[in-house]
Specification:
CATH superfamily of the largest domain: Nucleic acid-binding proteins
Largest sheet: 5 strands, antiparallel
Oligomer: single chain
Helix content: 10-25%
Number of helices: 7
Strand order of the largest sheet: 7-6-5-8-9
Shape: elongated
Length: 223
């Protein structure tokens, strides 16, 4: 749906375009914000007498927050975001201040092929702003960039909080974590690493238990 029709008075309707429902949220369907039969206040944006159309706005009832958001989320700033939507191309996160941001799949980690396999709705991600577009009202963030400038202790803390994503997040920083992950035994750690790399210890075991090749003895020459 491209918007919501609102009855101003009997026989007179106006349209709130979907882009005029919220300053900060990416609305996919008006039902995310409004319900049929709901009474609301609106702002008249434009009256087209020739085509008999009235354009209305809902978000215009509030002050545009983007000038303030530009200060909060300038490129390089760090923050946290809660995942509210998972898509093939990445995840949408809710940021402090009510804004929404986008984390592309490539910025979630090198080994993350499908976001839904690695993350869940409600997960809290540490993030760094890599793009702020005030005109298109878009904030792009990265988990990978966040860990690039962090010491090992920050990564270990995050791994401890997200043990099920340990090996995915480990790849983000491109720094091997030698210590055993908290709550995971060395055997489980090795097993998970083998699954992640597709390697197995069976080949080495076969090699170690294989009989040593016997030296070929010189056979006596036949006369």
């Amino acid at each position: 749906s491209f918007g919501v029709f609102v009855e101003l008075e009997e026989g007179i309707e106006g349209l709130i375009h979907i882009s005029d429902l919220s300053w900060t949220k990416r609305i996919l369907h008006p039902s995310e914000v409004l319900k049929k039969g709901q009474t609301i206040n609106v702002v008249v944006l434009k009256i087209d007498k020739e085509n008999r159309r009235i354009s209305l706005g809902l978000k215009q009832l509030e002050k545009d927050p983007w000038p303030e958001l530009a200060k909060m989320y300038s490129v390089g700033n760090e923050t946290e975001g809660k995942i509210i939507r998972i898509m093939d191309k990445g995840v949408i996160v809710e940021l402090p201040g009510g804004a929404e941001g986008f984390v592309p799949l490539a910025q979630l980690g090198k080994k993350v092929v499908k976001a839904s396999d690695a993350f869940s709705i409600g997960d809290i991600l540490p993030l760094k702003v890599i793009e702020f577009d005030r005109i298109d009202r878009r904030i792009v963030l990265s988990v990978s960039a966040y860990f690039e400038s962090k010491e090992k202790e920050y990564l270990e803390k995050y791994l401890a909080q997200h043990p099920t994503k340990a090996f995915l997040v480990e790849e983000l920083a491109q720094k091997p974590v030698i210590e055993t992950i908290k709550g995971v035994s060395p055997e489980e750690t090795q097993s998970a690493q083998e699954e992640a790399t597709g390697e197995s210890s069976s080949a080495s075991e076969e090699a170690s238990f294989a009989p040593e090749p016997q030296e070929k003895k010189d056979e006596p020459e036949q006369k």
